[in-house]
Amino acid sequence: MEEKGTISIHTENIFPIIKKFLYSDHEIFLRELVSNAVDASQKAKSLSSIGELKGDLGELKVTVKVDKEKKQIIISDNGIGMTAEEIKKYINQIAFSGATEFVERYKDSNADKSQIIGQFGLGFYSAFMVASTVEIDTLSHADGAEPAHWICDGSTEFTITNGTRTERGTDVILNIAEDSEEFLEEARLQTILNKYCKFLPIPVEFNGEVINNPNPIWTKSPSDLTDEDYKNFYKELYPFSEDPLFWIHLNVDYPFNLTGILYFPKVKNEFDFQKNKIQLYSRQVFITDEVKDVVPEFLMLLHGVIDSPDIPLNVSRSFLQADANVKKINTYITRKVADKLNEIYKKDRTAYEEKWNDIAVFVKYGMLSDDKFYEKAKDFALLQSTDEKFYTLEEYRNYVQANQTDKNGNLVILYTNDAEKQHAFIETAKNRNYDVVKLDHMIDPHFIGQLEQKLEKTTLKRVDADTIDKLIETDAKPESVLSEDETKRLKELFEKAIDNQNMTVGVEALSVDDQPVIITLPEFMRRMKDMNRMGGGGMMMMGNLPDMYNVTINANHHINHRILKGDDARGEKIAKQAYDLALLSQNMLSGAALTAFVKRSVELIDKE
């Protein structure tokens, strides 16, 4: 038997066009061909189970071989095989008709390659990205079938003759083109197989070894798995990582199909996204590790696997953004994560609190990104006090409301973003029986803003943003013991000693237990600068402005009374010393100013 034919197509050779548009993704040819071989094997298994495939099914497997001398790559299977008529139907018509539309639309186009890949599932025809000619040697499972051989050089011509195969199945032989000989290197093929075929459901053999795990745990029932199974699979995915905090096993078949396992890893305190840690599969075939549109952005720090047959192998970014199933999956994952966190919180709050510093970034980012997630998460999002106690938002309101409500009826939550650096301010707050919470993640400037929007009559103030009496204003205020003239002179002495236009000096009546000089950066300016560091866009101009500090002189402190008793020269010297002490407490004294402070301190001690 020999048959030649041509395909009606408006170009002499589509191979250069395919290569031009798909070259950057040329390694996917192996994924496509091995996936086809796996499909053929699974079909054989299905037909055997219903009695339509006669004889022994045998051990189903796919084999990939390299022949460097012949410059060939051979992908073999013992699946259902094809007749000559089926080759013409499934290979010629489907491949070339798709290619016709492809050529017509993109032969003169500079269109985005990812969109082209996404719109045309070229499948088998991707072989021509690396091969000068492609051959198929196949024998169908059908009774009385004759072996068939097909060959094509990527032009409009093909030839079908009698084949040589004696057992059911298919060999796809790629005669590798000169500019693609890198794929004749075994290490190169091994890398591609590990990337795309690691969890295919049929054994894939390369160099005499099975390179895949056909039964990954996401295909199994959670009831059949132990914690060790989940941890071992995590190590299989990420060999050098610490054990995960916990995981979520996804399994849904309506209104879409989805399986997978998402792991909560231990993350650093800083807001450092380690993207591309979630792998997207379709029927155990790897698609991509860029899952931004499938997984909510706030969960991009998660690790694991998602598998959905409702997502085709050749997907583009535009497809993921537009596909209805992808949007449903995104919503489902959000809900499952919220439910899992709530379950852990309710089941073992102590264990949840121990994990809070690792999972806080997920929860807070989720609350910022998704209103539905916020509504669920507000019941298990925690605030951590500087005394290491944890509270839900409602619990914390109840805890501080009586003592931290200002004269206007607003609840004031005091926070620190650096408990060590702001220790003196925290102690001042505690001396008034106020509580201070830690909000020291890089995401917290945004989280603080959200809490003020969401929580009724609530404001958050950093504990070092002003004097404690101004942070929580009440009707009860200390009275100044200084006269108007003394207040004016004290202010002038400090302004002269400081001599810095970025420091605004004011004299206020504070508690005698408060510091003699307090330096603060107003809350508004702090937030603008924090937002700018987080990439706050419109806050760029504010973020670049010099820091404008408030210097509050405690009218009731005995050191400031001593300043007033001496002459101006001595008073200015003590004022400078008190001011430098305030700078030192804020970690703002360095260089020559620090050296001068130390020298002045020695002189003052020596005179005592």
Automatic annotation (TrEMBL):
Query: Which residue ranges does UniProt annotate as crossing the membrane?
Result: none
Report the sequence similarity comment from the record: Belongs to the heat shock protein 90 family.
List residues of the Histidine kinase/HSP90-like ATPase domain.
25-166
User: InterPro entries, from UniProt?
Assistant: HATPase_C_sf, HATPase_dom, Heat_shock_protein_90_CS, HSP90_C, Hsp90_fam, Hsp90_N, Ribosomal_Su5_D2-typ_SF
Q: State the source organism's domain of life.
A: Bacteria
Keyword hit for Chaperone? yes
Q: Which NCBIfam families match?
A: PRK05218.1
Name listed for the protein in its UniProt record: Chaperone protein HtpG
Question: What's the source species for this entry?
Answer: Rufibacter immobilis
In Gene Ontology terms, what is one molecular function of this protein? ATP-dependent protein folding chaperone
In this entry, which stretches build a coiled coil? none
Task: Report the SMART domains cross-referenced here.
Answer: HATPase_c
